Amino acid sequence: MAPGPGKWSAHEIIVHCADSETNSHARIRQLLADAAPVIQGYDQDRWARELDYHTLPLEPALATTAAVRANTVPILRRLSDAQWRKSGTHSESGAYSMENWIKVYAAHLEGHARQLERNLAAWEERQ
Description:
This protein has helices spanning 10-33, 44-50, 58-77, 81-84, 98-126; strands spanning 38-39, 87-90, 94-97. With 127 residues, it is mostly helical. It has a 3-stranded mixed beta sheet. It is elongated and about 55 Å long.
C-alpha cells in the first residue's frame, strides 16, 4: 500500500529499482562503448503507472537488481583514466559524464532503502 497520494508503495519501489538499475546497466555501456553516446531519459512515474508496477512479481525484480549490479562491477574495476573521462549527452539534462553516472547510481538504491523505511514507518503508524 502506498503511504499517500502520489507516493509509491514498497512493491512499486522495488520494481522501480530493477528498471532503474537496468537503465544504469545500459547507460554505462553506452558511455564507454559508443562514439557519441546519447543517454535516453525516461519518466519513472509513467513507467510505474503504464507497466502497472504493483502487479509485477518482486522476486524477479530483486534478482534483476542484483544481477545487473553484479554484471557492472567488473567493468568499474577495470576502467582506465581515459574511460572515467568519457561523456555523452543526456536527452533531458545535457552533458552526461561517467562522474554523473556514478553519482546517480552509487546513491540510488540507498535512497530507495530509506524510502522503504519511511513507508514502513507510515504503515506502522496507521496500524
